Amino acid sequence: MYSVTRLLDVAEEDRDRVLASVRSGAEATHARHRLVEPTLPGARNGGDVLVHLRFDSRSEWLSAADDFAATLNDRAITWVNGATYPGTPTRNSSGGAGAVYRPLLLRVLPETDAGTVAQFEDELCWMPRFIPAIRAWQLSRVDDAIGTAQWTHVFEQEFSDIDGLMGPYLMHPIHWAVVDRWFDPECPDVIIRDRVCHSFCHTAESVLS
Fold this sequence. Notes:
Layout: E1 2-10, H1 15-28, E2 33-38, E3 49-55, H2 58-71, E4 77-86, E5 90-91, E6 100-106, H3 114-130, E7 134-141, E8 144-146, E9 153-159, H4 162-171, H5 173-178, E10 197-198, E11 201-202
Antiparallel strand pairs: 1-3, 1-4, 2-3, 4-8, 5-7, 6-9, 6-10, 6-11, 7-9
Helix pairs in contact: 1-2
């Protein structure tokens, strides 16, 4: 599978119009799955509209990319963060569909050695084992990035509900005692110094499938 994530900053007075326009543009891509929704309160650097498209292949995305980019060439869209990336999602054994979709865009420092990057990726992948509220997830390395930083990774999850994201996930010891050290500028293990994109929205159907 091949995925495209775009986080759109949109002038408040134009959000309904842009939402409708981008939904139409997303449909025209003929992506296998399309999600275009307003972000929920609490997103950080996460935009006002979250766009996620899933294709069967990179070539399918490339055939639609220019037309979709033209859809985003709107004066009311003031900034875009995003990435394109391959990957295969994993569904958690807790079962059930998620009601909240959350992508995290991040940039590992370029001087980080391969072994440290692999350890960081492994520890991110531990998280769903300990947090049943994560119903599905995918960790991907980025092919193409746009926006505030040259994003290197996208970590996506489907959560059971908003409480599962804001409570068991963010407050779990696996998060603050293990994973957070990679992001903490006061910790010698820090490898992520740029501001991340933490965005999330409601979804009526599975995104990571």
